Amino acid sequence: MKQSFRKHSWAEPYKIKMVELLDMNEREDRENFLREAGYNTFLLKSKDVYIDLLTDSGTSAMSDRQWSGLMMGDEAYAGSRNFYHLEDAVRKFYSYKHVVPTHQGRGAEHIISQIMIKPGDIIPGNMYFTTTKLHQELAGGIFKDVIIDEAHDSESEFPFKGNIDLDKLDALVKTYGAEKIPYVAMATSVNMAGGQPISMSNLKALRTYTQKHGIKIIHDMTRVAENAWFIKQGEEGYADKSVAEIVYEICSLTDGATMSSKKDAMVNIGGFLAINDDDLFDEARNMVVVYEGLHTYGGMAGRDMEALAIGIEESVSDNHMHARIGQVQYLGEQLLRYGVPIIKPIGGHGIFIDAKKFLAHIPQAQFPAQRLAAEIYLDAGVRTMERGIVSAGRNKESGEHNFPKLELVRVTIPRRVYTQAHMDVIAESIGNVYSYRHEIKGMKMIYEPKYLRFFQARFELL
Ligand code: PLI
After folding, report:
1. How far is the CA of 436 from the centre of ligand 1 (A)?
2. From the alpha carbon of 190, which atom of ligand 1 is closest?
């Protein structure tokens, strides 16, 4: 593919063919909607949201090529031609030998956790992700965070805050023994750290270390192409490599991957487990029929596998990634102009507001990030998400809240969906909330579900 982005700013490499009309409601309405939703932005109705930045998951705009792919769905129960297209795409762009489709990322996490983790095993990872960690725990594993300290420091501007601290990993190997560690869960573009990348040199060092100890690397590749863009921009020796080449190299340094294709690969639903080892593949292929569906469709329709195969190819284009990350950076720079405290460097899939600084007067036990997400919605109908104490859940032994260092509001940008004018409205609105931040008070939780509480918890204003 010809790559011509250097001549231009981050302007979009596409034009708009169809639009979805949005409701623009009043603050009074939003006060009612928010109260009914228990001050949890996950419980708002989409029709009551003006700009929806809850997540970049499943919310991308598909291309005309992807939409036409939907019409090419081969809805055979077994051996759909779309599965073979997907398998080819995974081999060609991601290097992995085998692929097992699942309904979305957590379906793949479930299978890999069940086949690789034994009770009492240790799973080191570069920061937890909610569903990933839960599946590790449900399989009897114990997650241990081995990300570098800079990742927990909202002030640090280190460019590869997704890196793994090999000393922390080595300490786990010494304490528990390598035989207790089936794999390292290595995420590219670490979500909970603010969409922060891992460097290729760190990944190579991890590869050398884990090979020496007979430990596998399972890659959470949900946002691998975004990570590749940061390597291209910031790591020596990669400026002239394409995103596609870097993505391929990252994947080939790992043994397998779980993928939520609702992010990077720009489909509304779907995911897969990819694995190189023939025996593990055999087990995964057997298990998928129990929980998802036959191994040539897993949890997906033929048409969705077709759109995914096309989306994978589009996601590794330099022009696409230049515009994608360019838009996120643009919003971050606008917010910085308003003085809003955000995680730096600006990450790949969104802006992460530091709620501990924004609402410094609200104690963490009164859910400052949850409160801030609610207030941002009230101001102009922009929906964001808490990534702090509510998302971190409770300590399994003590039952107390986990108190994460990072108390964030994630302002997540869907791919190819919103315009620069939308980015300006978002920045103006959050800037406005910042100007009256001292008047905002905390909240208390009045309903708490057992698993992944952030999705359904309810709150009251103090
Ligand atoms: O939502 P799923 O089940 O397709 O994927 C789970 C998942 C796994 N890993 C990572 C890094 C994710 O970000 C992720 C899902 N993330 C969501 C839903 C998000 O809003 O960030």
Report:
1. 33
2. 11
